[in-house]
Structures are given as structure tokens and as C-alpha cells.
Specification:
Shape: globular
Distance between the termini: 40 Å
CATH class of the largest domain: Alpha Beta
CATH topology of the largest domain: D-Maltodextrin-Binding Protein, domain 2
Largest sheet: 10 strands, mixed
Strand content: 15-25%
Number of helices: 11
Structural class: alpha/beta
Number of strands: 12
CATH superfamily of the largest domain: Periplasmic binding protein-like II
Radius of gyration: 19 Å
Length: 272
Amino acid sequence: MSGKVNVIVDETLLPVMEEQVEVFEHLYDRTDVDMTSAQENQIINKLLNKEVEVAVLTRQLTAQENEFFKMRKFTPRVYKFATDAVAVVVNKQVPDSVITLDHMIAIMKGGEVAGSLNRLVFDNANSSTVRLLKELADVDSLPDNGVYALKSNLDVLKYVYETPQSVGVVGVSWIMRPDRNTKRYVDGIKVLAVKGREGEPAGGGYYKPSQSNLADSLYALARPVYIINAEPRKSLGMGFAAFLTGESGQRVILKAGLLPDSIPPRELIIRE
């Protein structure tokens, strides 16, 4: 396998995707993955405008977005390779250890909520985390009060670290395996357990974004992860997608704290 491919990824998934690229280029030393990150809306626009051809997102293309490709007589290839979690974090000084989805939805709707956890902080107004909470709250826009958008997941971690009364909403891979830039902030925060809606599996208790809870559909803020290949010809993007969905890529997902789409087998060495 050889060649070069440009890949754009959802910024909330950047840490785990950086690991994927590192392993991929190590295994296939004649390949070059030029990876950049952006917010979800930006990624979609770049795909539709043919600025990029390979993207990693937490949703599939809508029917309207697919129409752009149908007009070109081309259908992008879409592969699910993981289940991600949106983590809810607070400063370690905060006594609370749990939060309900209904509480977060009330904030998203602009309503008054009881308690000190009444300020949601997102990475960006156009991010996939905002889109997820807007869909759950069934709102089209963010309220004037109680919800704040910064520029990145790192900014959210830093803000929560410095502002104890805030509740941060970030991609879970940012806190599972933090790098040097994020570790000091991650060490000063904690992940809240979330209770979902009544009548749903995630509504039966308070659950953290662990792999076992993701596998059992117990975490209310879980979401799929897809690689979308819009290359009109077979190229390195196909090879990268095969890697992500194959055993090596799935092991990276497992080690990063997300849920692989297919659990890699474990090899046991039995000595007599």
C-alpha cells in the first residue's frame, strides 16, 4: 500500500484519529496521511465543495447532502468503525458527580434549572456535540443564556479547569488519553455520570462513558463514528478505511477508550 491521502476529521475525534494515522503510517511506511481537523459544518461544506474527499464524522450524510453527489452520478462509500461518547465534565472541586439528560436539555431550551450546574460549555457553535444536544433538546438554535461556545475541545477543558461552576461537553477521547497539552487540565476535572430519558436503557441509572456502558447502550450521549470516502476512484482513502475497520484500527479504538465496531479477538498463549 502506498500513496498520499488528505483526511479531515471531526475535531472532537482528533486525539484518537491522530493515533490511527500514526499506526497506519508505521505499518505502511510508503503512505502519507495528511490529516486536518475542523468543526462538523465545515467538514460537510468541504466535502460538498470537493475540497476534501475523505472525512471522519459522527453522523452520516443527510438525503439533501447526498443529492449533491447524485448530481455527480457518484455515491460516497460510508463505513462505521466505532462508537464514540460525548463526555460531560466538571471541575474536581464541584461536589456533584451525576447529571441528568433532562437537566442538560432544560439548559439547551433556555429554561431555569435548579442547582449550581447551570452553564453548558461547548467547543464550537457548529460542532457535532452542539448538534447532538440540539437534536436531543429539539431546538434549532442555542439560547441566549446558559450555553457558551468556545473554539476547541482543549479550550473547553481549560475553561472547566479554571471555572468550577461550568459544565463542559467534549469528545471522550480528549480525556481518555490526554497529551502533554491537555493532561494538566484533565487532571483537574472529573467526568459526570449521566442518566438518560425514562423508559430507555440509559434512563435506568447514572452511567459514565465506559466501553461496557457503550456496548450495553446505557450511556445517553453515545454516537456512531463513520469514515466517508468520496473519492471518485479507488485510492489510498479506501486503504485507510479498510485499516480503520480492520483488526489493527479496531485495536486502536479499543485502547483509546471508544467502542470498536467489531471487538478484536484476544490471543491467549497457554504454556504447559
